[in-house]
Predict the structure.
Amino acid sequence: MYSYLLPEFIIERREDRCIRCRVCERQCANKVHLYDAELDRFFSSEKDCVGCQRCVALCPTDALYVRPRLADYRPNSSWTRDKLQNLKKQAATGGVILTGSGNDKPYRIYWDHLVLNASQVTNPSIDPLREPMELQTFLGRKPDTLKIDYNSDGKPRVASELYPNVPVRIPLLLSAMSLGAISYPAFKALAIAAKKAGVLFNTGEGGLPEQMREEYANNAVVQCASGRFGVDADYLNSARIIEIKIGQGAKPGIGGHLPGEKVSDFIAETRMIPRGTDALSPAPQHDIYSIEDLSMLIYALKEATNYTKPVAVKIAAVHNVAAIASGIVRAGADIVTIDGIRGGTGAAPLATRDNVGIPLELALAAVDKRLRDEGIRHKCSIMAAGGIRSSADAIKAIALGADAVYIATAALVAMGCTLCHKCYTGRCNWGICTQDPYLTKRLNPELAGQRLLNLLRAWSHEIQEMLGGLGVNAIESLRANREHLRGVGLEEWELNVLGVKGAGE
Amino acid sequence: MLVQQYYRSERFVPDKEMDACGLFGVMHTGGVRFGGQIAIDAIKNMKVRGSGLGGGFAIYGLYPKYKDYYALHIIYQDKNMAAKKVAEAFLKKHFYVVFDEEIPTNPDIRLFAPPLAWRYFIAPQKSSADEGIPDDEYVISRVMHLNSHIEDAYVFSSGKDVGVFKGVGFPEEIADYFMLDKLYEGYIWTVHSRFPTNTPGWWGGAHPLSILDWTVVHNGEISSYGTNRRFLEMHNYYCTLHTDTEVLAYAVDLLMRRQGLPIEIAAKIFAPPMWEDIEQMADGDRKLYTALRMTYAPLLMNGPFTVIVAHHHEMIGLTDRIRLRPITAGAKGKLVFLSSEESAIRAVCPDLELAWTPPGGEPVVVRMHTRDHLKSLNKSI
């Protein structure tokens, strides 16, 4: 059926610059640029353009411009362009509108309304170029107290048995993106960067390829999601942390669906499913309908790994998230991961992505407060995920109570992603969110890994600078230290939930 | 006479040099009680560190006659008698009050907004539901309740045979106001000379900060305050005195009294070695320090600090791990001194036998009937 959709982008080509090298034509998986040799002329199929900017970035003569096409429908504050386009899409297809990447709605981004403190006279700032600045963090459950006794030579030693904890050199982890949702080069780039940076990457629910287990196991968080793809004892033991995925910020209450055409031999083997079959992971885990059920799975995983690995539970930030997190900790989880409404995804129903869940900042503050009120905050680490865009977001998340943060969209952007929101089509021109061999070759895992490593390094330097400015030389002294935050332009209820004072107070 | 009329106006001289706080502590390791002149003279010698907005003393061995009872020093802001009535009703409900009186003050000394200061010697009066609660816990919970629920009433100190005298003014003014040099003797004296950072100078916020038998005087600003405070709240310590030092007093109580950790370990929790140093340690030490940092990360005290922590039979000096605020120790015979400045020690003991400056994070532990304090001497520079 004819869609009546208007193109989203305008493609402009400066003929005086174009040298007919045809790079744009080869780079576009959507076949937007078509070269007519007889006429020696390019034609553009604008309706197929997703605005990924690949052709623009690689055009050697800067001849191309891809711009959003905004002023086509008659301006209307209520019936906006995206609403009209979506109506037409659904009228043509009768289906759910899919989308990729994270929420792009202008909900308040609280990070941008929080400002940090700086040392002045009485408390000198610390120069990280001259003084040690410690970012190392331990993830896992901490004991209530330590018992100390003394050796025969009078030296103190720890007599308590400790829970398994995982050190990360910097409090920035690479969030769950499964092999299948992203390409193998992208997946491997995450692992390479995590290893070099001394942090962890999260496999997502797509399993961990056998050839990566030996080299990257020390840096892997493996996921046990509803589909149980790739989950066996070897997989569980090939990781530092096991994460049970209950929910995801981009699509709370929605499961995953990797279409059969993306399930190649390699992905089928890693996920332990037949080639070419749809990989469906339902929203509910069908053995978990209560905190007690969750507890059984947590301890089953602990048993399977001989109590050597922390078990994390990932939930989406939703209403009553604090009470849910409390139950999760009481169920035995060592780490709670909270994924906010701006979390990314490979594919989600647009309506869900944009309208379900709450901002990470509010959820994080509420969870931290609730766990402290109940005296169980030390029994878990809190990982914050979903829309961390910069080192400033990360450090503010830690000041709101996170032990560490997960980044995913930022990592994809470091690899080349331009947030065209078309991950679900499987035609990612940047070779990230695709299984097409022609496209995946565009991404060199070593080079992409280096870009990610650079990003982590840059952020850790920035975090060190800001910590030094606060007069703090260990990241743990900033955790939940809301005295170092002030709100600007926030209402009283928001300040109350965040637990921060307004600027000037 | 120590206090002169110009003190009051001097407090507001705009070009006053604002250095770091002055701290001083002196202990007789033989347990002999002595008067306050040493502490008063030493802190006067560091007058430039003071601001006139806060000063105070803690004295151990103060009330031998009532040493079996908890001695509550309570101030009533603005001499609020209604607050006194409420507080006393609360005390009578939860304690046996064996004796109480107004803390004597010198009417000739004029200070900024002095509150009514009262002391009560009390013993727990437990209901059957509270039978199993140790006395110290019982007292702490009531003190926390009083501080956080009864407006204008604040408990200055709550230990046995120990008392805190503090207020808005120079420490020598406070000493004269409470007549510390005339009325009291003790075997440990600690003193502090400056307003509590980031607060308006107010009587409750001045140092020493105390809980039960623990008192803390502190120089610097604890930038980890929010983290420390929120961790302590989980253990039912509520910071009501609006100053960063309060967390140190409670952290000491939590770690040493409740959890039974020795001071040497507590010092390494407050000012731990750097990770790069821990990585170089032998296995046993590495395991110990890693476990301490993991478990007690929220009690790492960040930012510049020097503290003198005291309780019965023990006085501890500690600086932050990168020694942004140094501390000096000195000793002669059975007297051991801790101070922000060596000059203050020499001012009261010119013929010192030893004087040394320990490195950051290395505690000087002065204990009764021992020479443990010399342990830090070998590491001094």
User: Anything to note?
Assistant: Chain B is about 30% helix and 25% strand. Chain B touches chain A through 42 residues (CB under 8 Å). Confidence is low (pLDDT under 50) at residues 1-18 of chain B.
